[in-house]
Amino acid sequence: MAKLAVKHVSKVYTSGKESREVEALAGIDIEVNEGEFFSLIGPSGCGKSTLLYIIGGFIPFTEGKILVDGREVTSPGVDRGIVFQEFALFPWKTVIENILYGLEQKKIAKEERLVIARKYVEMTSLRGMENLYPKELSGGMKQRVALARTLAYDPDILLMDEPFGALDAQTRVFMQDELLRIWERTRKTVLFVTHSIEEAVHLSDRVAIFSHRPGRIREILPIDIPRPRIREEEVSRRQYIKLVQYLWKAVEKEVKGFSYSIGKRVDTDPEDVGFQGNLVKLEDAKRK
Length: 288
Ligand SMILES: Nc1ncnc2c1ncn2[C@@H]1O[C@H](COP(=O)(O)OP(=O)(O)O)[C@@H](O)[C@H]1O
Ligand SMILES: [Mg+2]
Hints:
By secondary structure, this protein is α/β, with parallel strands linked by helices. The protein has a single domain (4-79, 155-287), classed as 3-Layer(aba) Sandwich (Rossmann fold), CATH 3.40.50. It has nine helices and ten strands. Bound molecules: adenosine-5'-diphosphate and magnesium ion (MG). Adenosine-5'-diphosphate binds at residues 13, 15, 22, 24, 44-50, 213.
């Protein structure tokens, strides 16, 4: 049985005074196995974050089902831990207090809480920083605290939404390897959203490619590169290069497909001069 099953999930947002409808996801089916590292990539705005929030139980959906261990889930739970792109730390709490937070929620005894929190301080290489406040930390450190906090309450499934998106290139690479090391130790089931194809290939067992909005799964690609993965050896492997190139093409096709479909709409108006022209006209209309 799949650890996490997303069954034909669709989502339509209704927003604004005129109840404008935005179809974000259309019939998503995904099965993630226990201990698997599964990534989602696709054009910006195709509904990746929406899907993660739905699985996390934070937003309602229009159609479908989410199953964890075969049981339907409809609200947030400690079985699913989320790590966002923005470092969602409490600014008034120190590193260790931030990590302890989830454990307090789980009502674990005080002494045990501290033992667990220290274990994750070690695991995420935060030793010596326990009593600092978030504002005293670099981006990479903050993201490590966020990861430690989520890992500390021991969710079965980690949902990660572009967790390294705001980091500089060097820190990002460092954090990827850190995450791989931690994942190899804990073997959590991970659902990971990224816009970096190299990151997806380096980390994942499988990668799902999303279409442009409304998001549909175009393809699920197994990443059959042996583990443990060592970056220096991997980047020159033919298999790695081929997978990266393949995914680039697949995502590019989706991004282009999207601008083409906008272009088509524009073409129906004889006064139009293509997509760019339409944007200019939109600006004009706003000014009027
Ligand atoms: N709260 C919301 N209300 C209305 N539309 C939304 C809301 N959140 C996201 N959307 C729209 O849904 C689509 C998918 O968004 P999102 O899930 O953030 O995409 P991604 O994470 O793949 O970039 C986008 O077109 C976005 O503008
Ligand atoms: Mg997003």
